[in-house]
Design a protein that fits this description.
Chain lengths: 134, 632
């Protein structure tokens, strides 16, 4: 499974971000969300959803091999991570987050709550056939 | 800890450059809920009686509600309040978007701004950090331009409110702008902000809002989204948003046209919701948490200019497409853009300009007075006047005072067709054959605004139904029968005033209920699990009723000689039969209006002059107010 963004369906409501924070941190606090919505106004006048597609760039570039694949999601091992933040720099979607409550970077664990709660079907969970075949 | 709320009132005195954080009193939350309730209570208790709206002592309040920022459909509202530049009485204006939720994540339920800075400033809020910062380089910029420039400087994760040149120049219907197209449009809240030399407020919050039972609140929030999505209006109403009502209002003849000379515009299919989708729209644009985004963001091109713009929503279509008779959606959208950038309320502007054009056509205002010829169906006239108004140049200085003052200064009978109540210009529903809706306009606490009660369904269809079902029903341009005028009109209006206004206290959008029929009781359940203060919908409505009496009391106290005469419409609406369209020939008499007001006052427990009686005030828990009002 992987998350897929359908940008043209997004109306910028941020329901996904609030759901992410409640599901993963038990807080009504979207600043902790592990995805972002870019509002491009006044021009070109649209939204871009930035979500983790589990591309693995973070794991490939981690000098400590602290990021591993589990059930389709790349996970940061807090015991191995040294907090060098190289993964934050290399993430192509800017969804590797430094947060003040955590010593290590935090990323999407593919819980799927954003897709389940998006009222406009702008984020969907899809089967990643290529990866499953590989 | 008060669950559901951030728990803090932030007070900023611009004159003394002081910032104070106070705990939100539990009694305030319990008895006035939030949003509009907080605005009403704080204005009544704290504003020195008799001050002018532009005096530094006037308060500009931004209040959220207990539902703002939580996980439920459309929890993005912020409510602004002040002493009104439009009426001199109670004023509030609410806005969707993302500002209110961000205020709460930063830790504040309410911002109270008093005083005035010497030089242009903006208020910077980043969680605990609150600073008054210089804003001279942004002064003079349009609302949208300034928001873009502030965000380029501060970062996109700040939520902004800004004013444009109209606010800076104290145009009495200047708005507060947010998120490149959302406004607290009505009652001149932007002018009060301008009078304080406050160009903008930027807020960023990284905190969380405490919830009494988060697990249950999250489950009920998800259930609410599913129920909204299951309503027929989810697919049927959302695509066009509020503009989707344009066909219906024309086909039943309530669409203000040619400065309310008539209530039907022949070109309505060229300025309706479908025209937006076909010719303007780029994306849906929603407020925080909204499953049914009414915002339609697009691009318009006209001979007068081209622009990106959110909207037009229905009111703008009615007041520029109908009242000023702009004949294409592109033209309406361009007028919309210009208002947004200049920081002007599209409703009031459409009424003021419609009045000015009629004055010119009747030779009450001349080419010399105005500076050029102006006419209906002419975008150049609208563009010319909007720019003059925002800068208060020439004729614009008169028009910036609002249609009431402008007509009183101009005279020659122009007061008869200055369409307002108490000084606030009339919004997008013509009411000569809609007595309940007429009464709603006459008794709305801020002046002639539809926000407080919307009862056209009773007048036209004989019963209230959600807007999607109402406009989905078959209509045609046939002659409408004379609407029933009875004491039931007062009942409908009072019920709607309590229900709709309650959303403005809860800090949540009402459209999922009003337009789609999402059941009201769900909001009481959500309120209860979020705040831990268990209240039924009926109990919440009782608080809404209390707030209603309090806003009336504020206006009674602040407007000299307040009384029944201020609840009347301009003479056009009771003297001139509607010129054409489905309601051709219909008019309501002054006597019938008097009857409507009497029924309403009686049902409200107000005296014959429209003043709340001591007994009524005591009965709704406002005993402290009861002693303040004379004649009660």
């Amino acid at each position: 499974m992987e998350l897929r963004a359908i940008h043209e369906n997004c109306s910028g409501c941020s329901t996904c971000r609030l759901a992410c924070a409640i599901e993963n941190f038990k807080e009504v606090n979207p600043s902790k969300s592990l995805l972002t919505i870019e509002a491009r106004f006044p021009a070109p006048g649209d939204y871009r959803i930035h979500i983790c597609d589990q591309c693995g760039e973070c794991a490939d570039n981690c000098p400590e091999d602290a990021i591993y694949l589990k059930d389709g999601a790349f996970i940061v091992d807090p015991d191995t991570c040294t907090g060098c933040l190289i993964c934050v720099e290399v993430c192509p979607h800017d969804v590797m987050f430094e947060q003040k409550h955590s010593d290590v970077p935090i990323k999407c664990n593919l819980c799927g709550e954003c897709a389940r709660t998006c009222p406009r079907d702008a984020i969907v969970l899809v089967q990643d056939i290529e990866r499953e075949v590989a | 800890m008060i669950y559901g709320y951030a728990g803090v009132i932030l007070r900023v005195d611009l004159s003394n450059a002081t910032v104070r954080k106070e705990p939100l009193p539990e009694s305030l939350a319990e008895n006035f809920i939030g949003g509009r309730g907080f605005v009403a209570k704080m204005l009544y208790d704290e504003i020195p009686s008799g001050i002018g709206p532009y005096d530094p002592e006037n308060m500009l309040i931004a209040a959220t509600g207990p539902l703002t920022g939580h996980f439920l459909p459309a929890s993005g509202k912020t409510h602004f309040g002040t002493k009104s530049p439009a009426t001199g009485g109670y004023a509030d204006s609410n806005m969707g978007g993302h500002f209110g939720p961000q205020m709460k994540y930063a830790g504040y339920d309410v911002l109270v701004i008093t005083g005035k800075t010497e030089n242009p400033s903006y208020l910077y809020i980043n969680d605990d950090t609150v600073e008054i910062r210089p804003a001279a380089k942004y002064w003079g910029q349009g609302s949208i331009t300034a928001e873009k420039n502030f965000k380029d400087h501060l970062g996109d994760d700040y939520q902004m409110i800004t004013i444009g040149p109209a606010g800076e120049n104290r145009v009495r219907y200047a708005c507060i702008s947010h998120d490149f197209g959302r406004q607290a449009g009505r009652t001149g809240v932007g002018a009060v902000m301008g009078s304080k030399n406050l160009k903008a407020i930027a807020v960023k919050g990284t905190g969380s809002i405490p919830v009494a039972d988060l697990k249950e609140a999250y489950a009920k929030g998800k259930e609410a989204y599913q129920k909204v999505k299951a309503k027929p209006g989810f697919e049927g109403w959302t695509p066009e948003g509020t503009a989707g009502i344009t066909n219906w209002t024309n086909e039943v003849g309530v669409f203000p046209t040619r400065n309310f000379q008539t209530s039907y515009a022949e070109h309505y299919k060229n300025i309706n919701g479908k025209a937006i989708l076909d010719r303007l729209k780029i994306t849906d644009k929603g407020c925080f948490g909204c499953p049914t985004p009414c915002g339609k963001y697009g691009h318009t091109q006209t001979p007068s200019g081209s622009a990106y713009v959110e909207g037009p929503e229905y009111e703008t279509i009615a007041l520029f497409g109908g009242n000023c008779v702009l004949k294409t959606i592109e033209e309406v959208a361009y007028a919309n853009y210009l208002c947004d950038e200049l920081g002007i309320d599209t409703i009031s502007a459409g009424v003021v300009i419609g009045w000015a054009i009629e004055c010119f056509k009747k030779k009450i205002l001349t080419r010399d007075d105005i500076g050029q010829e102006i006419d209906f169906s002419d975008l150049d006239s609208v563009v010319y006047l909007l720019n003059k108004i925002a800068k208060r140049e020439g004729i614009g200085d008169l028009l910036a005072e609002g249609v009431k003052v402008a007509s009183e200064k101009t005279g020659h009978g122009s007061e008869r067709f200055a369409i307002h109540v108490k000084g606030l210009e009339w919004s997008g529903y013509e009411c000569r054959n809609a007595p309940s809706m007429m009464l709603a306009y006459l008794t709305a606490d801020v002046g002639a605004h539809h926000n407080r009660a919307w009862v056209l369904g009773h007048d036209v269809a004989g019963a209230w139904t959600n807007v999607h079902d109402l406009i989905a029903s078959e209509t045609e341009n046939k002659a409408q029968p004379k609407a029933v005028i009875s004491d039931r009109c007062a009942e409908y209006v009072i019920e709607s005033q309590h229900k709709r206004s309650l959303f403005d206290a809860l800090g949540n959008c009402r459209l999922q209920m009003m337009e789609l029929g999402f059941e009201a009781e769900h909001y009481a359940e959500l309120y209860s699990v979020i705040t831990g203060m268990t209240k039924s919908w009926e109990e919440l409505l009782k608080i809404s009723e209390r707030i209603w009496h309090l806003t009336r009391a504020f206006s009674v106290r602040e407007i000299s000689g307040f009384g029944r005469h201020l609840d009347f419409p301009p003479a056009r609406l009771y003297e001139e039969p509607i010129a054409d369209g489905p309601n051709q020939g219909h008019v309501i008499s002054k006597r019938e209006i008097d009857d409507l007001l009497t029924w309403y006052y009686t049902a409200r427990g107000w005296n014959n002059n429209g003043i709340p009686t001591k007994e009524t005030l005591m009965s709704v828990g406002l005993s402290g107010v009861a002693g303040d009002l004379e004649g009660g």
